[in-house]
Please model this.
Amino acid sequence: MRRALALLVLAGSLLATGAAPAAADSFVPVNGAGSSWSSNAVDQWRRNVEQYGMRINYASTGSSDGRNQFKAGTVDFAITEIPYGLKDGGVVDTPPSRGFVYMPIVAGGTAFMYNLSVGGKQVTNLRLSGEVVTGIFTGTITSWDDAAIAKDNPGLALPRRKIVPVVRSDGSGSTAQFTTWMAARHQSAWDAYCKAAGRSTPCGVTSSYPTIPGKGFVAQPNSQGVAGYVAQRGNVGTITYVEYSYALKTGYPVAKVLNEAGYYVEPTASNVAVGLLGARINTDESSPKYLTQDLSGVYTNKDKRTYPLSSYSYIVVPTSAQNGFTAPKGHTLGAFASYFLCEGQQQAEVLGYSPLPINLVQAGLDQVGKIPGATDANVDIKKCHNPTFSADGSNTLTKNAPQPSECDKQGNDQCDKPTGGAAPAPGKGSTPSGAGAEPSTPAKGTTSTGGTGTAGTGDDPGTDGGAVTGPTGTDGGGDAGTAGGGGGGAVVAGATTGGGPVVCSDDTGECTNLVSMPVETDAPQSGGVGPLAVVAACLLAVGLVVIPPLVSRGAAARKARR
Amino acid sequence: MSATMQAPRVQPEVPRDADVPRPIGTRRSLGDRVFRAVLLCGGVAVLAIMGFVGIFLFLRAWDALSQAGWDFLTTQAWEPDSGNFGIAAILVGTILIATVAVVVAVPFAVGVALYISEYAPPRLRQSLISIVDLMAAIPSVVFGLWGFFFLQGHITGLARWLSTTFDWFPPFQVPGSDPDDPLATATVYTSSTFIAGLVVAMMITPVIASIMREVFTQAPVGEREGALALGATRWGMIRRVVLPYGKGGMIGGTMLGLGRALGETIAVYMIISPVFAIQWHVLANGGSSVSSLIALRYGESTPFGMSALMAAGLALFLMTLAINFGASSVVARSRSGASS
Amino acid sequence: MADLAPARGEVRRQLTGLRISDLLNLCGAGAAAVALTALISSQLAPVTSPLGFVALAAAIFLALYALLVSLAERGVAVRDRLVTVMVHGLAFTVLAVLVFIVVFTFARGAAALPHLNFFTDDMAKAGPLDPLDVGGIAHAIVGTLIQITIALVITIPLGLLTAVFLTEMPGRFARLVRTVVEAMTALPSIVAGLFVYATLVLALGVPKSGVAAATAISIMMLPIMIRSADVVLRLVPGTLKEASYALGAGQFRTVRQVVLPTTRSGLTTAVILATARGIGETSPVLLTSGFTAAMNSDPTSGPMVSLPLAIFQFVKSPEPTMVARGFGTAAVLMLLVLALFVVARVIGGSNPLKKDERRRAKEQARARRRTSRSKRPARLSSLSALAREHAAAPGGSTPVKHTPVEHTPVEHLPLEPSPQEQS
Model:
């Protein structure tokens, strides 16, 4: 399905571009290195431009390695999440002496994928505020039944289970993007954590996540590693930060994160793109942070659809012909740049990223002309076939991106629709131009039906009336009575406060909350025989087998002696 | 076949009556002199290359070493950019992984070696030898993939059982685990030194087995015959003749396996969850190793961080060097080692 | 890999002889163990994992088997049987696990392997979203072959020269070289890559390319090869060289016509084992070869990818097709290593040697049968003669070293280093 879609997208983009890049014929190979976070997109793009005769070689060896190699002149471009001149762990990374500019290349949201179940059923509609996310990943919130989590999730009664944060063991771009956000928004908590981990403060952005021994954090290499770890069935209680695409592909849900407008939103491509509309680029040429991102506008974007942990990675391109960089290379790189800023972004969503919105594309196109030899590159935004705006330059994203439903509003009972990879696969997929990912896809026939009426909400222990409580789960005893009547509660809540743009009638059918299912405990049945009885029975069984031959042998020996 | 782990011949030849070529006093011909010059050049070139690598390692490490000083040996944390780093935890972690690997691998390797040299039908023997040699050459990335995609998810049951059954044995305790809590997750048993050690064990078993098989096969036939003639069972013969004869080879093989386990990169990289504190609990989550740390961090480290990584590499290098020397001196003194 | 001991006529006796009672004991203990484990795990103490089941069954089996044997035999024999069973068990466990690792790799790569394009295409026209019938790893295969060829061109002459140097010109300097080389076999392989990156690429301006990668691989392979070759060369009997000198040959001639031919098969194996290690290493090429998805057969310019590097990149992708490609690539890499072993056997000339050995062994066996049939005492006397010969050997060391030289050199020295030398 996705493949067919991808081919369609590709075909569409080919038709649309026409002969623009194909006219330029004298391409030479260009080499780059850097971010492994962006590599999936870059890998697809370099394959797409291969047909124009462009050869882009990209080694995803890590952002810092990319920056160092660009500085040393061994590559023609680098892709990185962290610009030069920042302190990573207290050491300033000096910019290269060769001329360079930054351009946005790949955008995406940091998703929080988790593996959590209540009473044997997977939780798929977790919501978290920024404070809670920071608390979890700085080790101050350690149990899923923490009051702060309960406050975000009035519809869930989470068990007293340990939270196991899974972080990246290698240096990575997703760590950099996550810590950029934490350093900007929750600096004191982040600095306190860093300090406990033995780093100098202020900690700021870092690409290798510090861990404190004994805190119960798990570190794994690569996105594949963290996602795979969380997705192991036994690892219940784990949560990790990872690209949205990994959650989709492993079939696990992601947490909705609270934004400035008071809505909990999922890191879908359109939500990230909407968020990035708030990104500003430093255009002060005298500043050492010239052309680097200022994401504070993203974190505080008032749009209801904003996913706050949105960011993008840079491509660092040279502006002077030195270190083996030549005008023909610049020509190729310029053509590639105008490709990935425009047509290439149409595939961003299928690849698990988000398309760059108009403000970032414009900022990027402004820089393309500075690459030596790339003067003829397409820098007219009107000819840019980016999915987030139309040919006349109007921002279609703000018009078309779906609004969050009212049940996602802070304080309301949460939606029951599963998130991330736990959501049923979209039947038709999203259209190439529609940046909206899964816009209110009817979730039908998931495991979430059934059990609505089995238990009343009346005997919910300890929660205020009407709120949905899952089974307490700690006893594992299998008493279905504690299971809340989630369906009813959620529907009522949605209806009373409702009236949001998203049709809730679709949802009502599936509002039978996943977590409100009757308890099916997977704990081993501990009742019955006690351990002493087991030992006794084992001894008896062994004795039955062993004693007769021993007796007979003894008898034989005695006989022989006689 | 023969050649096993050789002792580095530091002192010329061992027994006085061994057949050493006599020193020849005649003048060498022109051809010979040229030949010797070429040989010398080869030796010098290799020494230069290897020396360069060593010097390179030392120079790159110097920055970090000079800043950290002796604390480098005692600090457990690894935050080079904050000036707070040392190899106490990662070196111990490396040794622990290697120890687990060797402890698991040696019994299996002895089993394989004895089977091939003593029990296998002669028709099968040759193919078994080839299989084991081939297994020793499986690329380590394959083991890493297996450990990451398969073993990691299937071994926690064993780890849990070990930790609950042998609770009285401190290294097997798992802090944070509570067997009585039905909601306890398996995560405390994952990414442990134990699992990494198992993968490395699978990697070094064929290597060790191959060496041991070599020495076992070389056990003198006459002595075997003697033992059997005196009424020994096959095991009696093995215990009294083969094992004592092959002791040097067994130790040497183990040491070489240990060396490889200490330096293993990719397989450990894929399993371990690095923790920068000495982690004695081998079954508990978290561990560390020098070479996997280098592989994990080199892409995203600052020049000073790189220097710290090189310093860790240097420490590992010196340690492995010491182990190699230890192994070779043991082997050189043993019976079978003399000719191997 | 020839066995030394049988080569000199001392043939080990085959200790077999399976009696029906042994077989019955095994079967009985096995059946009882499985039954008992099933009983315990299903009724008494739940054993959830299959691994636990097998372990429990094995323990019960050993206990029951010991019991059964002890009914008829004395303690010594019981221990012998137990050890026999345990050795078999350990050996088969290891083989099973290793075979499983190989099979697992093939199984996970099974989606990619049936496509012919996987072996004939490069990845230039295949991205993460493309199905498996587009793109392949031909570029990585070619890259690996080119890189390993360059590495061999560097290491074989240098490695063998140094190994000969170590044996032919012993002295303090040789000792130093040997010490350094042995230390270098323990070098973490990523350090070799860093070294080449810092010197060749950064300082000397060689672009990241096949040559740079091959140099890094060479630095990793060189100590391994020297060490293995050194072992083999040192085992050449002094008598052999002495005979050559006595005939008036110079040192060069002795090395060329006596030492090298004698150790040919061993040296080949040394080369192959170093190659097998070098071909499978990711870390040295990670920093030095660059990365490309396209075929590049020019090692001097442009990035060139090799099989381990391709695996490493493939399995990091979120796309299942890419992960399948990664496993497929791993399978291809293993096949390549296997092919190398076959090549080693063919080129290394161990075949004629072994054939020779086998022929001799067969002749001896025939002769023994003849003699034993006609006159039994003769065989006994020949055995005791053998034993006497062995006892006379100083130190009781291996037969080879002390047997007098009588035939062509080749016959004495089926010398090969063993795989451990690669470590």
In short: Chain C touches chain B through 141 residues (CB under 8 Å). The CA atoms of residues 159 and 226 of chain C lie 5 Å apart. Residues 1-8, 375-423 of chain C have pLDDT under 50 and may be disordered. The radius of gyration of chain C is 28 Å.
